[in-house]
Amino acid sequence: MRRFRKTLTTAVLTTLLVGSTAGQASAGGESVPSGPLPGTAAWLADDSLGRALPDPVTATPSEVAAFFAGLSGAQQQRLAEDHPTVVGNLDGAPVQLRYRANAPAGDRVLAYDPRGRGLIAQVAGDLESAAHVSVIVPGSDIDISTFDRTARQAAAVQAEAGGDTAVIAWAGYTTPSGIGPDLATGRLAETGAERLTRFTDGLDAAGLPDPSLLCHSYGSVVCGLAAPGTDASDIVVMGSPGMRARDVTALGTDARVWAAKSPDDWIDRVPNVQVLGLGHGADPTSAGFGATVLPADDVPGHDAYFTPGTSTLTAFAAIADGDL
Predict the structure, then answer these.
(1) Is the pTM of this model over 0.90?
(2) In what order do the strands lie in the sheet with 212-216?
């Protein structure tokens, strides 16, 4: 019992104290925006087409795609103008229509929810004509105010991969913030996995290629939980505290699984345990996990896997472009 208590305490403390990129204390768990998006009631009440509009909460991305496919261009544009918050976040809606609805938030913004700390997804490259698509799933301390980090990572991968690859910077879930219990549990990852699964279903419904997922730090926990529900071609994790799976087979996916960890990454000091819901389990770079391990000796730290010139960025781009 003493050994168990020591192991559990070490896991919790190490994860909480080492696991935050921001290094700021968090008083409690993060609040996750819930309920329909603003404007949903007006959307559902809109009878201008003489038929019901798809419910943003219950309609599947495939149903959304089929609905928009039955509309004229003018009808689509009017819905985007009248209900930008709904259309801009509606998985399965045409890409250009979502861009138009989200234009006030920036260029090529595929999703934007200002509630709470804010959620956003932005595209680097030409998504509609892309032969290959990747989605970057970030870790802790990423929201609208810090999203530029993830956007720069997407731009770096896209530039390295080439013109026929589009990379989506997806800050589409509430990430852990500061030092707090959320870093050690799967609470936010579970919600994030549901959102990531629906998002990738939306890409599929829009006729886009199966994506590769590039998952950093706590984002790898999200990807691990989302793995059974996505059609991802590849899942790449870096600086991972674990994927809440004992090995690749437990992920329940046909995707190729890759893992990278720098020898200079502090994540190596986080014990790979999962006890009573705390901790995230096996190290994806360990021999027994079964992932293909990518070289990362030249990566200077936890937040540097996407740095230009590193072996990891080269590998990420090759996977994204289908060359590896």
Answers:
(1) yes
(2) 109-113, 119-124, 165-171, 132-137, 212-216, 234-238, 256-260, 292-293
